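# step 3/5: fold
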Amino acid sequence: MPSKYKAMPLYVNSRWLNATQDCKVTNKSVMYFSITKPNIVAQPVLGVSAQTGEWSGVVLGCNNRKLTLIRTGNVTTYNTSFAPSAGLVPGAPFASWVVPGSNPAKDTISTQMDDTETILVQNTTSTDNKVKIQVTVQFCRYQNGVATNAKITESILAKMLVLNHPVNPFGP
């Protein structure tokens, strides 16, 4: 049975898609995607009230061995040197995502991690046609600009809920 939901694609830079590459480059997007809360149309007969959907954009980027993760509902903030064009941001019926109790104009989560050595974004499809994205990052301790033998590797696996979720390469 076909899905009744339209999945917003994940975009992965072809430099890191299924290939381990360094993070020494300047201002390169590794991947970006949207997180949404669904728009609900009013159904008075069922007692369901209308709810506007929410959108936030997420971008993972590299800049001189520094890994940056940004999540924001602010389109201007989302369109940084790492992020995609504003044309990829959905319009109505989505409103911008905000952290509860925060100032929407400043509503951004931003995290940076130094000493990022390599990144790998693996894209696989399981036997049940669900797309799996695994991001593996290796960090290396540097002293006086020289890599040491101290390395840490972290990995996270996400399984998309929509069958055959689109993953689009871009870049390099």
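# step 4/5: annotate
The chain has a mean pLDDT of 82.
# step 5/5: archive (pending)
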